[in-house]
Amino acid sequence: MRNRPGRHFLQIPGPTNVPGRVLEAIGRPTIDHRGPEFAALGRECLDAMRRMLGTRGRVVIFPSSGTGAWEAALVNTLSPGDRVLVYETGHFARLWAEVARRLGLEVETVEGDWRSGVDAGAIEKALSRDAGGARSIRAVAVLHNETSTGAASDVPAVRQALDASGHPALLLVDTISSLASMPYEHDGWGVDVTVAGSQKGLMLPPGLGFNAVSEKAWRAGAAAKLARSYWDWRAMEDPNAAGYFPFTPATNLLFGLKEAVAMLEEEGMERVFDRHRRFAAATRRAVQAWGLDFNCRRPEHRSASLTAVRMPDGWSADALRALILERFDVSLGNGLGKLDDRVFRIGHLGDLNDVTLLGTLAAVEMGLGLAGAPFQRGGVDAAMDHLAAAPAAMVDSS
Amino acid sequence: MRNRPGRHFLQIPGPTNVPGRVLEAIGRPTIDHRGPEFAALGRECLDAMRRMLGTRGRVVIFPSSGTGAWEAALVNTLSPGDRVLVYETGHFARLWAEVARRLGLEVETVEGDWRSGVDAGAIEKALSRDAGGARSIRAVAVLHNETSTGAASDVPAVRQALDASGHPALLLVDTISSLASMPYEHDGWGVDVTVAGSQKGLMLPPGLGFNAVSEKAWRAGAAAKLARSYWDWRAMEDPNAAGYFPFTPATNLLFGLKEAVAMLEEEGMERVFDRHRRFAAATRRAVQAWGLDFNCRRPEHRSASLTAVRMPDGWSADALRALILERFDVSLGNGLGKLDDRVFRIGHLGDLNDVTLLGTLAAVEMGLGLAGAPFQRGGVDAAMDHLAAAPAAMVDSS
Amino acid sequence: MRNRPGRHFLQIPGPTNVPGRVLEAIGRPTIDHRGPEFAALGRECLDAMRRMLGTRGRVVIFPSSGTGAWEAALVNTLSPGDRVLVYETGHFARLWAEVARRLGLEVETVEGDWRSGVDAGAIEKALSRDAGGARSIRAVAVLHNETSTGAASDVPAVRQALDASGHPALLLVDTISSLASMPYEHDGWGVDVTVAGSQKGLMLPPGLGFNAVSEKAWRAGAAAKLARSYWDWRAMEDPNAAGYFPFTPATNLLFGLKEAVAMLEEEGMERVFDRHRRFAAATRRAVQAWGLDFNCRRPEHRSASLTAVRMPDGWSADALRALILERFDVSLGNGLGKLDDRVFRIGHLGDLNDVTLLGTLAAVEMGLGLAGAPFQRGGVDAAMDHLAAAPAAMVDSS
Amino acid sequence: MRNRPGRHFLQIPGPTNVPGRVLEAIGRPTIDHRGPEFAALGRECLDAMRRMLGTRGRVVIFPSSGTGAWEAALVNTLSPGDRVLVYETGHFARLWAEVARRLGLEVETVEGDWRSGVDAGAIEKALSRDAGGARSIRAVAVLHNETSTGAASDVPAVRQALDASGHPALLLVDTISSLASMPYEHDGWGVDVTVAGSQKGLMLPPGLGFNAVSEKAWRAGAAAKLARSYWDWRAMEDPNAAGYFPFTPATNLLFGLKEAVAMLEEEGMERVFDRHRRFAAATRRAVQAWGLDFNCRRPEHRSASLTAVRMPDGWSADALRALILERFDVSLGNGLGKLDDRVFRIGHLGDLNDVTLLGTLAAVEMGLGLAGAPFQRGGVDAAMDHLAAAPAAMVDSS
After folding, report:
1. Is the terminal CB of chain B with fewer CB neighbours within 10 Å at N or C?
2. Is the pTM of this model over 0.95?
3. How is chain A split into domains, by residue range?
4. Which residues in chain A are contacts of C397 at CB distance < 8 A?
5. How buried is A396 (Cβ within 10 angstroms: 0-12 exposed, 13-18 middle, 19+ buried)?
6. Which fold has domain B9-16+268-391?
């Protein structure tokens, strides 16, 4: 158990701070997953996830991390040797490509610079090269929000790229670090398989993975030959219809899921999204005031759920993070893969308010000073200016 | 939230009643899975599972149900088309075989009668048939405790069958509903891969799957060609050594795991096993007094963690269970597969004491009466006689 | 923290088993007791207690034990030297009289036999002796349910005794161990001051004391000269009207109070009372089957919330209780005052269901056997017969 | 339940933010207050409070608010008509005097300016006037920390004033808002009765009141004639020796007390005090940067547990507090009595770390701006400078 006074600020880009109401729910006595009380819970959770994912179609819930939901998206729709086009926005796109390779798929990568969102034009170009009767690319995989770089992508533009090139490939989208923090529309955006997890905008601990599945993806599954058992969507179908699961679900996390979605919907999803935009804007003001570089170069690509900040050359981001953790009990996200030790990431998603964000930014500002890194003061001031000027939509307490 | 007065008695053979200390632990704020505090937790959990599983070797923890750990045992050790010998003790053995088939393995089944444990002689015979240079059976899969029938099996005898036939197949054992309720020794019994889950004797909610891995199984993995990513043991190796995981772990369930193992070890594993034996004996006295049949025919095969009771012919076990749930708020396990509506199963594992067991048996006795089923009274009396005569080893309160 | 497996059965006649929903509520973050969120809570709690106590008039909530509410009833209505008539039904009536003496009142006792409820005729007789202009008895104090003896009293009959004798004394009634377990009507029964506590039928931990106050008692308070500050009703009046308290309230217990009353009202108070009657009846069947004596001689006086059982002569009730606690982890109430070591008390109030009661009775039956006390088996059987035959009104789960 | 996103910042000067470990403890199942498990808890709590209060003598724990402990200090030591000298440092001193008057004591007040601590010289003068054989002042009552004004007092200097005047009056000290935040020594400072509560530095919800009692105060109690029952120290003596209480204690708050003291002692009391000094210093830097006045004029009197800030003339402190609560979900303390609407009070005591304090100060700074009050920016910057420069003593996580 932690011995430090006060509350830890978990400001990594997920897992996020789990609200008390959700922790309470998770801490309730486990129930019979084959009993009538569970059936109601199961149906509520599936419906809730439909609303969160923006679909009236099928959703699937796995006892797994988000990584598992990546795997499920692939094994349910593809066959050994199928080609998948992955846009490498950063570390997590690379990891998803790696999962595909391990499962026996052929991966074609569109290289990104790890400092911006998806260039839909590059996807269109790649798809155009895959023309004619042969058309071997079976799926295009992109991340709505690349957690390692802080860059969000325009999913409708990717959909348009597929449509423009008349390519029949499935569109697979990872919304792990954007769901319930940034608007997302599985049906509206024409996504075939969406991949999500519990531990970010949904304000839950890790342990649940999600898929949303279009009719086209479902039909593709009938012919898909990759071996699957645990991840098999079809095994879910009948039990899910009655509120049950084909194997023992993570009951207590489902208690939490029901409560977390209730909280989000009490706040109102538009307000939730506004709140995240507002936090992102305040954080960017702080970064600009400090005179530091954003990892994500293009302002319009910058994520509403996290901000990745580049350390000045020659300075260790990990040393800064360690100092901030030790001195101020604030956790920040680390640089991953190519960005190792080069960036630190401020998570501003999930169950968060203005003063928690300002406390976090204060820790960064003090930490930069203590580290001796070249920067200007004034980040917290700039963030306060923004937050004071731009009121959050208020929610009445019940 | 439940509206019924008093505490629900969750007496299915898992998930079991999660103790308050474990629920508290699970309800704590999620922490950074890449931070120093997590590293200590991760190491403690891996060590704790080594002790629970009886191994000094490798253990693997997945965010998954036990079903996932079945899949992991197969994909990490076998190649497409490999033959697996599965002893069909009941419904769950059949499901494991089905998993194997879906993953592209060839399954050879030793048929059981769903009313007893493994007949090691039948395994030896099957292995003997697979003689000569060709020896195509790569693994033998058995359940230590068949949750659907209430029959436990003699794992060392199965090991001996392999040894006696000089067969090099791997021995895969499922201990999902016996671990931490009945003695189990991965190393001592010469098991190659053990499969376990969190929601039974470990007194946790569902959501964690476990493997223990022998050196032989690990080496087999190097040549195993089944596709794997999420379940890949090797990806765990380096991060685990430092207390971390290759993808986001189910942090809050790990909080619970640490606490649950601490509780079991405070009680003392021998006492834990004795307690389960004692509950099983008391339950059997009740069943005998009622004049009902055990599903498991042979007394020496009857499980210490659950008792499956056959309804008199013509009577519905599910109707009885529904009545008991409605009238007494006690959940019992249902019959599965071939035993559908034929048996009800009393879980007497996990966090349980004498009076909870007696309340449960009272519910069954009253339920049998209300259902009008042919039976004799006196089951609770018989169980009381046993429990009063055979004191539990007492644990001092701290 | 407790090290014993399974859940402790807290079957003393209060504190009772606190339901999980209430424990959750109590474990929520404390709020500003002068802020707007608290105002709503304060009003809800005061209203809830009006409903529980059966009054449309004033209720007062103290951060205190029930003992404090005894004191408050006296100091707010009486002056030094005033005479109070206390009917000594048992230990707690005696303690209340002792409180009165310490506060400078003169106590006249109507002796009871500690084995029955109030004899209203005896009160009428005592009041008649106090006739004429002098009439010096200012208050009559009785317990609705004497927790030490298991005897309930007919409060309306006491009211009638006052009315019949035309005596102007105030009627003070303690409903500490009956409130929310047995019907109680402060207004309807013409009670002047009711005294209650949180830790019995209200299913809360101890720490809140309550008064309900008639107009007559309120007016008497204007002239009452006993010194008072903490317990002063008048200081509550203005802050309470706005939902606040004159000094810092026990905020977290108020969280629990709101939740507990919500639970009771979801069940429905008539069902709550029926449930307690049913548990009492089942317990009495068990006691009769054992061949033991009730401490409360007259069946119609026997409490619905607890049953006090006399040990056979020469046998120690405390030794039995210690044995049952050690062997079965069940707490029973001890004999108090004159009944020390002579009775054990089974609490069957609060958050309780059939199987918990049967587990408790099983512990008693096994304990009697182990103690070697003279008794007959069959108590649990008799209780099962009653509970199976007399269904509880069922509450649908939400 | 609250609907606002993120965690409320409860920065009033008590109740303070209750840490998760303590909330967990409070949310555990209530136990038998007459059983062996409770006896250990009771003893541990009494011992823990001895250490907190700095005494090897008697401590008393009441189920009550701190107000109740004020009353207990008086009724256990004084007789009707006794004179008490109260130094009116502010609102709470005045309230204590009012309690004394209501209980029938004669109060002599030393007027303070509500902007500083006790002037020990004024006490010495008042005592000197009460010379000769008649010496009618029986007790001197002061607050160690006046929560309404933010001024702390030099208790040893008050002791010296009594000693210098050779006056035999008892010294009664209220440490409600300083205990466990600022050093306090009941024995070492020669205090006769100390008054404390649970909801401030002890990091508990309200509901427990405490007294520490010197031998002299105990002996005075033998002759004290004020009526008392609930508050009677002597009734505690025998039960407390065995770990029990004379009436039902607030069991669940005692669970919390044990845990809270464990947490404080794991941190180390010197570190706890240093931390509070550091937070006070940072807060003062902010106030000075804003150009606002401290309510407490003399720097050396300023409290380490809270800072009362005066609003510029013509500006409403309550309007500012309401705005900050609505916009930023931060609760600040209000002005009380004479200071109504004139000051706001920042609580920096209890379970708190640097970033929570900075978030709080940011809310104040933004609020001042939004209110349009005359002030300078730079408060948060100044506080950051202080906190970054003056590292807290670090506590290793276990």
Report:
1. C
2. yes
3. 9-16+268-391, 20-264
4. 36-37
5. exposed
6. Aspartate Aminotransferase, domain 1 (3.90.1150)
